[in-house]
Design a protein that fits this description.
The chain is an alpha/beta fold. It has a domain of 136 residues: P-loop containing nucleotide triphosphate hydrolases (Rossmann fold). It is 22% helix and 29% strand. The protein is built from four helices and 13 strands. The strands form four sheets. Strands 5-2-6-7-1-8 form a six-stranded parallel sheet, with helices on both faces. The structure holds zinc ion (ZN). Zinc ion (ZN) binds next to loops.
Amino acid sequence: MTRLPNGGRIEVICGCMFSGKTEELIRRLNHVQLARQSLIAFTPRRDTRYRTGSLVSHNGLKIEAITVASIADIVSAVPDGTQVVAIDEVQFLESDPQAIAAGCQTLADRGVRVVVAGLDQDFRAQPFAIVAELMAVAEQVDKLFAICVKCGSYATRSQRLINGQAAPHTAPVIAVGGLELYEARCRICYEVGVA
Ligand SMILES: [Zn+2]
């Protein structure tokens, strides 16, 4: 396999909701396309906010993507000679964190540039183990921030509100439906939900 200058590495783009992770991922992938490198992008099937089959940023940029369930699906779908593999919303993959990190390392060891984007913390401000594991083994980590809706400071946390109240600590980490809402908040404005 031809090894490109940027090959054989893992890049993690992380941060809270509304921090522009997908925009940054798509920006890098646009450069990959301009450089005429071969690219495969994946998105976990759990992320149903947008039509499956493409990465779409909040501002409408789009990259075609394959919908997958697990890291095994990704590793087996990458043909020899692929130069860049992208995974958006990596925290939604249905595999254990060590397996996901190992799969990404396998690809990087083969010379692939692996670019992943995902939430670093859940709504309880606890680390997403998948992203924490990947950050530890990555060559490059970029942590993006949003703007706190309360005070305008840089926000690093995703506040989950259910009927206007901070979601209880015991609520499921990934919830679908219901009268819930997410806001970007800074450390000071972030509210801990009571059970
Ligand atoms: Zn704030």
